[in-house]
Amino acid sequence: MRMYDIIKKKRDGGELTDEEIRFFVGGYVDGSIPDYQVSALLMAIYFVGMSERETATLTFAVRDSGATLQGLDVGGFRADKHSTGGVGDKTSLAVMPIVAACGVKVAKMSGRGLGHTGGTVDKLEAIEGFDTALSAEKFADVVKKVGVAIVGQSATLAPADKLLYALRDVTATVDSIPLIASSIMGKKLAACDDCIVLDVKCGSGAFMKTIEDAKRLATAMVDIGKRAGKRISALITDMDIPLGATIGNSLEVVEAIDVLRGKAPKDLTELCIALSAEILWLCGLGNRTECEEMAKQALICGRALDTLAAMVEAQGGNKKWIYDTSFFPRARFTKEVIAPKSGFISSVNAEEYGGVSLLLGAGRSKVGESIDCAAGIVLYKKTGDYVNQGEVIAVLHSSRDCFDAAESKLLAATVIGDKPTKRPLVLDRVE
Ligand code: URA
């Protein structure tokens, strides 16, 4: 088999065989196929696409390229939730303790921030002492005892994705539905959970900007999960507006704790309950209404908050911070952003808001850069709200002197008009 022939076949609109797909993934991981040939194939896939079968085979090849968590014994049915990435998306920090408090085991591997989007691992590391690099034994032990553990992505899992993603990042081939689906699902399948709920974000702050693309991506990922014998479904949710009222690591952890204390903004709490109920339903714990009620009860009685505190303690963190969030570090400086005129906030560019938070120090512009966990934005007004000229729209938090640029960027990304426009939070569901 020759890589040249595989590139040519895909370039000319052909459908690759399972052997051809496994040949190129295997050859790229073992170094026998060079970057320039894989780049050419990725570009051909970007333009020609892949059939459902090809996408599934590529995913399975990514899954099989390294170790899996098949043997991880956590003493029960394992569930996971995956977000395709957004701005202010701290749902994992609340949803995972909620479902664990309802009896589902969660052994979660999460990522760091990517571009303008945040990552759960960076957020958890805002908690003093929290260890996101547990050994496999300790990881399983915490899940068995507490019901939930969250760690960083293991380098031995799906190494093909690490290589392919890095190449896509520099060859303008990231935003291809079969490539995104196989990248996300390859890692998810290597984690070997029994049940997976996908939160496919759609809008200005997401990789998928339109509902049609979000639905295509959700359908492709659900199809792959089904072929692998998983219980899987996807919610397509709005990411035209940052989720909740905070963007930035410590600020978001505190807001997720607020969800578990019943004090968080309505949109964030509503999505956390919807995602938790979806997981409980997929796990067979009841019908939809019963599962929603179960998730709400776990919040109301405080069990979900205690589960988060127990997880933090078991992973080396200071659990006092969960019950008293005044311990979280604060940025040295803050600056209010003031509405330049009166009217309804008719739209915001959520990706640009993510960019403002990067400017303030909450994210990385290069791999490996350190982040300021206290930096970020607190939103006082969001899309659909009325503002009076001179009112505070947002407060910027940072330890850097970068407020002028951050303020201009935030105001440029905020449209104040005559009409309130807002769409529902859960836009669709793919089962
Ligand atoms: N997240 C991933 O893990 N992979 C992609 O391709 C895009 C987002």
Task: State the gist of this model.
With 431 residues, the protein is of the alpha/beta class.
General description of the model:
It is globular and about 65 Å long. It has 17 helices and 13 strands. It folds into 3 domains: 47 residues, Up-down Bundle (Transferase, Pyrimidine Nucleoside Phosphorylase, Chain A, domain 3), CATH 1.20.970; 245 residues, Pyrimidine Nucleoside Phosphorylase, Chain A, domain 2, CATH 3.40.1030; 89 residues, Pyrimidine nucleoside phosphorylase-like, C-terminal domain (Aldehyde Oxidoreductase, domain 3, Alpha-Beta Complex). The strands form 4 sheets. It has a 4-stranded mixed β-sheet, with helices on both faces. A 4-stranded antiparallel β-sheet has the order 6-9-11-7, with helices on both faces. Helix 5 packs across helix 12, helix 9 packs across helix 10 and helix 16 packs antiparallel against helix 17. Strand 4, helix 10 and strand 5 form a beta-alpha-beta unit. It is α/β, with parallel strands linked by helices. The chain binds uracil (URA). Uracil (URA) binds next to helix 9.
Protein topology:
Blueprint: H1 3-11, H2 18-29, H3 35-48, H4 52-63, E1 79-83, H5 91-101, E2 106-110, H6 120-124, H7 136-146, E3 148-152, H8 159-170, H9 177-190, E4 195-202, H10 211-227, E5 231-238, E6 246-247, H11 249-260, H12 266-282, H13 288-300, H14 303-314, H15 320-323, E7 333-338, E8 343-348, H16 350-359, E9 376-379, E10 386-387, E11 392-398, H17 403-412, E12 414-417, E13 426-430
Parallel strand pairs: 1-4, 2-3, 4-5
Antiparallel strand pairs: 5-13, 6-9, 7-11, 8-10, 8-12, 9-11
Helix pairs in contact: 1-3, 2-4, 4-9, 4-10, 5-11, 5-12, 5-14, 9-10, 12-13, 16-17
The structure holds uracil (URA).
